[in-house]
Design brief:
The protein has helices spanning 42-51, 87-98, 104-112, 114-123, 157-171, 237-245, 274-278, 292-295, 304-318, 334-337, 339-347, 403-421, 449-463, 470-487, 495-516, 534-537, and strands spanning 10-12, 23-24, 30-38, 57-60, 77-78, 149-150, 175-178, 182-188, 194-200, 206-216, 249-250, 255-262, 282-284, 323-326, 357-366, 369-371, 383-385, 390-391, 433-434, 540-546, 549-555. It is an alpha+beta fold and 572 residues long. α1 runs parallel beside α5 (157-171) and α1 (42-51) runs parallel beside α12. The longest helix is centred in the C-terminal third of the chain and has 22 residues, at 495-516. The two termini are 34 Å apart.
Amino acid sequence: MTAPSSHATRRCVVRTPALLADYDLRRTPVYFTEVLVIGSGVAGLSAALEAAESRDVALVAKAPLEESNTLWAQGGVAAVLGVDDSLESHRRDTMEVGQGLCEQDVVDEVTGGGRSAIESLSELGVRFDRRPNGSLELLLEGGHSHERVVHAQGDSTGKAIEQALVARVRSHPRIEAYERTHVVDLLLDDAGSCLGALAIGPEGRPLVLGAARTILATGGAGCVYRETTNPPVATGDGVAIAFRAGAAVRDLEFFQFHPTTLYIAGAARLLVSEIVRGKGGILVDRHGHRFMPDYHPDGELAPRDVVSRSIVRQMVKVNDTSAYLDLSRIPGDVRQLFPHVAQVCGFFDIDIAHDRIPVRPAAHYFVGGVEVDAEGRTSIPGLLAVGEVASSGLHGANRIGSNSLLEGLVLGRIVGSHAARDAGGKVTLPRGPLRREETREVSNVRLDVEDVAYSVRSLMGRMVGVERVRPDLDLAIERLDAWARYLFKFRFTSAREFEVANLVTVARLVAESAAFREESRGTHYRTDHPERDDARWRVHTRIVRRGSQALLEAVPLRAPSPIQPPHAPIAP
């Protein structure tokens, strides 16, 4: 397939220096390893364990190893285990929800690895929930045509998986963990190959981690938005540092919003798992009207993007700040079925067995990311990426529930294996200073990074959220450019300053990509282009840094995949 000729390649100014670091390598501690893994979620941990079968591995996390998006994942792992299910059905469901942008080879690889992934986790000690007869409990989630989602500890699957993988990593003799270490930039040689990373250690001191192969597994970027299910560590660092280094990033307009997150002033935006709706929870408005059947024939089990848009529209229709989840129809004790949700809601005097839970959409999963091939290689030699930071082609334009943990487990092992295979040879690092010439010492101007972060997150929610329109996107780009112009004049010294710089960079890339794609597909909904347009837009969007500017273009899929019909449109 070739990209439609009607697409004009677009050049845009994305203000971000090639380096944010300002180090003198002659005075900076240097540590060498064979494979460097940046990130400690399910993908990073899986990659590190696989690479450590034959190589020395350094695993870097900017928080304790246990703190990642995986820890908070209430959803389960999708795997074909039922007698009436099939790999073909799982592949078809994934492709349909991905709305024509999934890469067939990756879908086949990941869905085919489900059973093995569950068996491996069971061997590590993960105890998946079972029925009274001892068989695995398989549950239904939105977008899936069969019950195929396995859970552990009810709504704490991510926590159970993370704990098991972290325990194995901590005991592995070939893995050295660098916790509370914030990666600032990638280190490149004169030919543009990755040699490792520049970082800030736990005490704020710079260090260099040299490696023959580097794997980005930094997770998502939910903190680009004010309303998010993600923990504070999800600031888009991997996409930002890869883009600065010259890596291609892809499909950044596709940002999935989870439709049902707890919405109470003062409460963290707790994700109320899709399994709650799969078990029979319904969405009602403040008048008690069950509204989802008004928007989609699958009701509460419609794809997440449809449910999110439906909630937003119903909120506007009835002039409310949230919708409400009613669990009263679910058989059994819902407090035992969903203990974490029950505990948090109970703190706010909400008894989930009887009271409705106020919910609204929040940024949840970054579908796009750093462009990779089927083996996880980026456009920078020596650099690989896996998990939420990567655009592997599995999710297409929209992620089906519980495929993300599966992706991290399956592709994590594959990427770790390829990195280890190619990690031979000695790494020679450059010596001398690495300077950002554009920085200035400004004695009478103080940078309030928290104010910048709040402004970015609020703007993204208002103008680049569940629904988008060109005038809002243009204004968002203009304001992000203005903030970037002065932000990058400062010399950063703290990890938080680097994080906020990454937030600005990623927000700008998301807004630019959303303005470029003039159709509605998956998680990207344009009210001024409300229809899906396969004739012109069944393509990926890719951005590559070119000096002070960036090249934004439409590129074809890697391999043919069947065009799936779009889901039934939601009612106007």
